[in-house]
Amino acid sequence: MNRVELIDKLAAEHELSKAAAGRVLDTFVQTIVNAVKKGDSVQLVGFGTFKQVARAARTGFNPKEGKSIKIAATKVPKFVPGSAFKAAIDPKAAARKAAKAGAAPAAGKKAAAKPAGKSAVKTAAKTAAKPTAKPVAKKAAAKKAARKA
Q1: Average pLDDT of adjacent 10-residue blocks, the chain of 149 residues
Q2: CATH number, domain 3-81, options 3.40.50.2300, 3.40.50.10860, 4.10.520.10, 3.50.50.60
Q3: Across the strands, what pairs with 54?
C-alpha cells in the first residue's frame, strides 16, 4: 500500500474528502518526525514505538580503494513493533510465545509448592553440590532444539 492508497482508505473509512485525509496523514507523519527528531519516542500502544537511536562512530572498509575509513556517529530513526501488531502479522509465533510463557511459571509454582522441611534442606544441599557443567550442557541442548523448531 502506498501513500495515495492509504489516503483513499482513510477517506472512505471516515467519510472525509481525499484532501482532508491527506492533511490528516501529513499531520500524523510530521508529528512523529518532529518528536523523534527532538529525541522523544512516540509510542502507539499495541502498534509500536518510533524512536531515535544513536549509532557510535566506527571504522569501516572501502572495498573500492581497499582502505579503512572512519564512519561518523549518526542518529537514525527506529521502529519497534508492538506485541499486538506482531500477533496480527504472525499469530502462530504469538501462540508459541504464549505457550512458552505459560510453561515457565507453571514450573516455578511446582517448586514453590513443596513444604519447607528436612527434605527441602537435603534437596538444596544436593543442588548446591552438583557440578555446574551439567546444566550448561542442558542449556546448549535446549538452544539447539529451539533453533531447529
Answers
A1: 96 95 97 96 96 96 93 96 93 81 63 54 55 56 63
A2: 4.10.520.10
A3: 75
